[in-house]
Amino acid sequence: MGTISWLSGRILSASGSPLRNAVMEIWQADNAGNYIHSRGALTGARDANFQGYGKFETGSDGRYLFRTIKPSIFPGRVRHVHVKVTLPGGQSLTSQLYIEGETGNDGVLNGITNAAQRAWVIRPWTAISGSSANTRAVNWDVVMNFTPAETATPARPTLVSMAGVTNGASLRAGAASGSWITLYGAGLTPTTRTWRESEIAGGKLPESLDGVSVRINNQPSAVYYISPTQINVLAPETTAATTTAQVTVTSNNLTSDPVTVQFKQFDPAFFQFPDQNVAAVRTDGAYVGPAGLIDGVPTVSARPGETVLLFGTGFGPTAAAPPAATVNAVKIRIDGQEAAVTYAGLISPPLYQFNVTVPVSLGDGDYPIAAEVAGVRTAKIVKLRVARTSSAAAIMPSTHRKVNSHQLLRLVTA
Fold first, then answer.
1. Position 152 pLDDT exceeds 80
2. What is the domain count for the chain?
3. What would you report as the CA-atom Rg of the chain, rounded to the nearest whole angstrom?
4. Is 151 within a domain?
5. Does 61 reside within a domain?
6. Cβ neighbours of residue 222 under 8 Å, at least 6 residues apart?
7. Least-confidence region, from 300-304, 320-324, 356-360
8. In the list 112, 151, 271, 394, which could disulfide-bond 279, CB 3.0-4.6 Å?
9. Which of the four pLDDT bands, split at 50, 70 and 90, describes residue 41?
10. Both 217 and 324 in a single domain?
11. Boundary of a domain, candidates 264, 279, 310
12. Burial class, 220, CB count within 10 angstroms (exposed 0-12 / middle 13-18 / buried 19+)
């Protein structure tokens, strides 16, 4: 019982680099305010279906993810989650995470008198758009060996020098002209949000959010998402097949040191839902994937013989402004079979869409998908869930179907 919540973020070094093999542990009260220890059931029987404790070991990207619930109130305290991070070698940090707007009169939290340090342990628990169960999401990056200071000299934003600029879909180092890219660093901004539709003026995408901007070879980039450790931007177009670019972030009127990255004309990659499922939509508007793949968002399987819409970035130039087809033909293979591609091009906001027919020979299961454009293949293979018994989809329009691009970007980029 309780409000399902997803707690995610990264474990970072003081310089902003992700830390591998860091172990993060969390424990908290259940929906009735009970802990799992012997004296924890203060308000009645403990919820046997709630584990009360979680443990996660980070990979090379330093990321962690927990599925939990919004903690209830333990007597004498406000809602909070206990956290311990242990690094290889034994160094550890123990802290507590609080809910923005529900801090109240808590003796432990009130003991933090430094405003910057207090703000670091209070995060918004935001309702996930489209969730019927009022599911929440909270993002919290833990920076080891770093103590926020209330009166410290403002620090410049820092970009990770190795693999800090990546393809926005595959998250692998490098990027393509005119494609979505993801930047990682530290101290990038104190706020976390995506652009608002009101900030798109006359079809022009915003080049700054809350004073945060990105320049690539001194050209401004459209900024979609900002957070303390991650920024998602749309790289400017360049005519060069391959070029070395200098990337900088400006925040609070302070600019980071430049990071060098190789930009290519083609760096194709499919956006993906969790567990390496390709970001796909059926022609009836349903998202494709195993049941329960995205909490609060219904997902269904694709059917053999029907058309599905796939989405990606880095597939090269188009003949005109979006919506427009790609200049170079795109080949897509599902389980090694070349699938019919009835549309390949940009939609708005800049997002490549591919209308692909699922091979009729496929049975129930997950099948790998790969693409190729101008002789360049997708570096990361994703998968598509197929089932012959899935409910029927609508008939495909003649060219491309307009999808809710903003909602799709929220699901796959932030």
1. no
2. 3
3. 23
4. no
5. yes
6. 205, 206, 207, 233, 234
7. 320-324
8. 271
9. low
10. no
11. 264
12. middle
As a 3-state breakdown, the chain gives helix, strand, coil percent values, each rounded to 5, of 5, 40, 55
d(CA 198, CA 189): 21
pLDDT tops 50 at residue 21: yes
Residue 134 in this model has a pLDDT that exceeds 70: yes
Please say whether the beta carbons of 255 and 215 come within 8 A. no
Q: Are residues 196 and 215 in the same domain?
A: yes
Specify whether 281 is located in the same domain as 212.
no
Identify whether residues 191 and 315 lie together within a single domain: no
Whether residue 22 sits in one domain with residue 135: yes
Give the domain range for residue 136: 4-143
Distance CA 177, CA 237 (A): 5
CATH (domain of 183)? 2.60.40.10
| Tokens (6 digits) for 281 | 């939509």
Q: Token digits for 240?
A: 């060069």
Say whether pLDDT at 267 is over 70.
Answer: yes
Q: Among 96-105, 342-351, 402-411, which stretch is predicted with the lowest mean pLDDT?
A: 402-411
Name which of 166, 255, 180, 161 is nearest 221 in CA terms. 180
Instruction: Give the number of other Cβ atoms within 10 Å of residue 321's Cβ.
Output: 10
How confident is the model at residue 43, as a pLDDT?
A: 55
The answer to whether the predicted template modeling score (pTM) of the entire model surpasses 0.90 is: no
CA distance 245 to 242: 10
The CA-to-CA distance between both ends of the chain, in Å, stands at 27
What pLDDT is recorded for position 399? 46
Instruction: Examine residue 148 and state whether it is found in any structural domain, yes or no.
Output: no
- The pair of structure tokens assigned to 410 is 């929220």
**199 DSSP 8-state letter:** G
User: Average pLDDT in the 93-117 region?
Assistant: 86
Nearest to 11 by CA among 167, 139, 188, 161: 139
Average pLDDT over the chain, rounded to an integer: 86
Pairing of strands 299-300, 287-288: parallel
